[in-house]
Each structure stands twice: as C-alpha cells, then as structure tokens.
Amino acid sequence: MPKLPDKVLVWLQGEVKTPPFSSNARIEAGYLLRRLQQGESLSMPQSRPMPSIGSRCHELRINDVHKTWRIIYRIDEDAIVIADIFAKKTNKTPEEVINTSQQRLKRYDHL
Question: Among 19, 49, 59, 101, who pairs with 83 as Cys (CB 3.0-4.6 Å)?
Fold first, then answer.
C-alpha cells in the first residue's frame, strides 16, 4: 500500500521559535508536529483531546525549562491546523483560549 503524503501544517495563530521556546522545547514541538503530519496519533502525555474546542481538536503538551507550552490543533483529512499556542499557567485551559480557537477554526472552515 503506498504511503499517504504528509499533511500540511496550517498556522492560524502563533509560531514555534526560540525565544520564547527553549531550543529543546522547540525541537520537541517540531518533532511532535512532524509525527502528526505523517498521520500518527499521539496520546498522553504528549497530546490530549480537546472536545471543548471541537471535534478532532487536541492539545500538544510541551514541557519547557520554566513553563509548559500548549499547541491547540485540529486533525483534518489533509492538514494539521494550528489554532493557538500559549504558555499554560494553571490546570484549566483559559476560556479565552477555547473561545478564540473555536472562532479561528470556524473562520478557517468558511474560507
């Protein structure tokens, strides 16, 4: 069976760069995003579903030196859509991040 082409990354918001990410956290984020592009399903502790944002939405978890980064993404048939990147400071995802991610994905779907 032929290998499917890699999914493209669609960045609706944010970027992964050093700084503010440490070099190691940036490399880890790139590695995990690459695995997603190749069609791999990630689970805890690297990723968890985010049904509060929408179907097929997940949160990548990147531990850095002094913070924990989150990358909100959705798995589409042909793309990994990045809705937001933020440093998580509490156990609960901020309501603003959830609402903003939902709005960005809705706008993207109507393009």
Answer: 101
